[in-house]
Specification:
about 625 residues, alpha+beta, 9-stranded mixed β-sheet, 5-stranded mixed beta barrel, 21 helices, RNA-binding
RNA sequence: GGGGGAGUAGCUCAGCUGGUUAGAGCGCCGGCCUGUCACGCCGGAGGUCGCGGGUUCAAGUCCCGUCUCUCUCGCCA
């Protein structure tokens, strides 16, 4: 007989009744009835009920067992007595009658129990991660993660991609997030950096002629955490392809993601054709470049209805500032004063001056609330009827005409789900909220309000994965602090502009420069940015011009990206790629709200590993070897 | 770096406008219990109320400072 087990705790069924078996595992739950003792024995594969009674010879030993002790049981399988079966468990029709017990690993009193679904404090869970990981939900999440990564690999390989490994110790990159640095012992005063992404390596792999690259790539960024952003390190399905257009990348990646979500999405519908939405249309219609399309609400432009109106606050601002707009977010079902006031105080808590609104109720068809009174019944009626998802004279709907990457147009009801909700405009019981300001200043808040209304009014579709492409990101943006033009995303993207005309551009022509779009795209699912990618700029002359337009001369380009700039001098193929975030994909598929629920050993929000105690101090000798002298900040107080 | 929330038994939490000996559930220890699967019943141990200072006759409760955790904004080519 094997030293530890003949079967796992998930194996045994009625067909094995009568067999002599040996099981090893953790004491999951112990029920002591005095004369008979039930121990649920748990391992990775399942749980098996084990029974000990005074006749078994193991009774005295069994009474000493406690939760989470690791034990080996010898015994025989038997069918459970009639009426005591547990159909909830795969092994619920059998039990093991235990005749011998060997304690393999006793456990101290637990800081957090494994059994049950109680919520425990985050720092406790992280410090005792090995216990937390024994719990069913987290254990399953980690196994799901592995299965998803297997499937991603298989799908990529089936798509003709090859997996590569790129360096972990590399050079600090000047753009983007803060780097993690590793001091060099052999080169005093110099540092390696952990890669924020294998961006340059994958492009160089294309220059080297490998054609279709992928990697489940670790990425390191020294930035503060978010619920959907791990501190320090995370994984991307990193992809790069040669001789491709944007559409080729879409056609390669879309089926992989759709397939993964269909395979692991437990039957929840997945967008069959990912619509393409331009960055500017997304900002105007959803107030975000990562719109949650489960929410049917659209932001309407009702500037016209307030211009020269009796609502002084808005009318004056519109008269004074030609760029100012009034954006309206319809709130079907939100037409109660208490609800509107609650939204107003929420807006104030978000640092806004407030949230103007009109609402409609039976007997007050001309609209209730101070805004309606000041604007007057005629304009209020234009707003009410105009908020039906169809553009009109007084109300503009910036709903994009959605296109699939195949070029196919989506029908209006897909592109504009809001139209289905209120085809005749708002009615009694509904409300509308108004945001005033320059689009650049108000879009984020308008987007937040749209999300909040969707949630509060329970309008969002549930149990679906709504995907879209966000395309046509601006190549440059205005940096208000430094009063200069900056790269909007990354300097590697190819401008979506005639190449000769681009090179001929006047460096001082800021208006044209700021209007240039890039072949830069994101995939968004349920309001979460899953990946970002681009067709790269593989031409040194265009790259030099791209830097010049952002105010950098060739010396800067050489200093910052010398390796790649040099590589592009020797025959670079047109190429592009994308990098879906593996952790976020798993998070969505596991139905979790926080990345820590899908990472085996995560750090806390302050980038500390509470289990291993990282980061930690090191010995003076280690520092001497690295030629480092500490210069610590003064202790506060 | 800014803002919100939290810190009371091993864990989750209650503890009102300051007032006698700080409570409950789970866990732990002991006893009883032969069919449970969140087993049940009886008893017990376990608390510098995060830390420091202040106000007060009296502070878990009010004030100030500080530390820790958490969410969030900044940040994230």
């Amino acid at each position: 007989m094997h030293r530890y087990r003949t079967h796992t705790c998930g194996d045994l069924r009625e067909t094995q009744a009568g067999e002599e078996v040996r099981l090893s595992g953790w004491c999951h739950r112990i029920r002591d009835h005095g004369g008979v003792l039930f121990i649920d024995l748990r391992d990775h594969y399942g749980i098996t009920q084990c029974v000990i009674d005074p006749d078994s010879g193991a009774f005295a030993a069994a009474e000493k067992l406690r939760s989470e002790w690791v034990v080996r049981f010898d015994g025989h399988v038997r069918r459970r007595p009639e009426g005591t079966e547990n159909p909830e468990m795969p092994t619920g029709f059998v039990e093991v009658y235990v005749t011998a017990i060997l304690i393999l690993g006793p456990a101290a009193e637990l800081p957090l129990p494994v059994f049950g679904e109680h919520q425990y404090p985050e720092d406790m869970r992280l410090k005792y991660r090995f216990l937390d990981l024994r719990r069913e939900k987290l254990h399953n999440n980690i196994m799901l993660r592995g299965a998803i990564i297997d499937s991603l690999r298989a799908r990529m390989k089936a798509g003709g991609f090859f997996e590569f490994q790129t360096p972990i110790l590399t050079a600090s990159s000047p753009e983007g997030a803060r780097d993690f640095l590793v001091p060099s012992r052999l080169h005093p005063g110099k540092f390696y950096a952990l890669p924020q992404a294998p961006q340059q390596f994958k492009q160089l792999t294309m220059v080297a002629g490998f054609d279709r690259y992928f990697q489940i790539a670790p990425c390191f960024r020294d930035e503060d955490a978010r619920a959907d952003r791990s501190p320090g390190e995370f994984y991307q399905l990193d992809i790069e392809m040669s001789f491709v257009t944007q559409e080729d990348v879409f056609e390669a990646v879309e089926p992989v993601l759709r397939g993964i979500f269909e395979e692991f999405g437990e039957g929840k519908p997945v967008t069959q054709q990912f619509p393409m939405i331009s960055y500017s249309a997304a900002i105007r219609a959803y107030g975000s470049d990562k719109p949650d399309l489960r929410n049917p609400l659209l932001i309407h432009d009702v500037t016209q209805a307030f211009r020269d109106s009796g609502f002084g606050v808005f009318a004056k601002r519109l008269a004074a500032d030609p760029e100012a707009r009034v954006w309206a977010i319809p709130a079907p079902g939100g037409g109660q004063r208490t609800f509107c006031d609650r939204m107003d105080s929420w807006a104030k808590s978000e640092g806004q001056p407030g949230l103007a609104y009109i609402f409609w109720r039976e007997g007050e068809e001309t609209g209730a609330g101070p805004v309606a009174k000041n604007v007057g019944p005629e304009r209020t009626e234009h707003i009410r009827r105009g908020l039906n998802g169809v553009p009109g004279e007084w109300v503009q709907v910036p709903a994009p005409e959605l296109t699939a990457s195949t070029g196919e147009k989506f029908p209006l009801e897909v592109a504009n789900p809001y139209r289905q909700l209120r085809p005749e405009g708002l009615k009694a019981g509904d409300a509308v909220f108004f945001v005033l300001g320059k689009p650049d200043d108000i879009y984020k808040f308008a987007g937040l309000a749209r999300q909040r209304l969707g949630t509060e009014l329970n309008l969002a579709t549930k149990d679906v994965f709504e995907f879209c492409w966000i395309v046509d990101f601006p190549m440059y943006e205005w940096n208000e602090d430094e009063k200069k033009i900056d790269f909007s995303h990354n300097p590697f993207s190819m401008p979506n502009f005639d190449h000769d005309a681009f090179i001929a551009l006047d460096d001082a022509d800021q208006a044209t420069t700021l209007s240039i779009k890039a072949f830069q795209y994101d995939i968004v699912c349920n309001g979460i940015e899953l990946s970002s990618g681009a067709i790269r700029n593989h031409r040194p002359d265009i790259m030099k011009k791209a830097f010049a337009l952002a105010g950098y001369d060739e010396a800067v380009l050489l200093e910052k990206f010398g390796g790649m700039y040099r590589a592009f001098q020797y025959g670079a193929p047109p190429h592009g790629g994308i990098a879906p975030g593996v952790d976020r994909i798993v998070m969505l598929l596991a139905g979790e709200e926080n990345l820590r629920e899908v990472v085996l050993f995560p750090m806390n929000q302050r980038a500390e590993d509470l289990l291993m105690g990282a980061p930690s101090e090191v010995t003076p000798k280690q520092l001497r070897d690295l030629h480092i002298r500490l210069n610590l900040p003064e202790k506060k107080g």
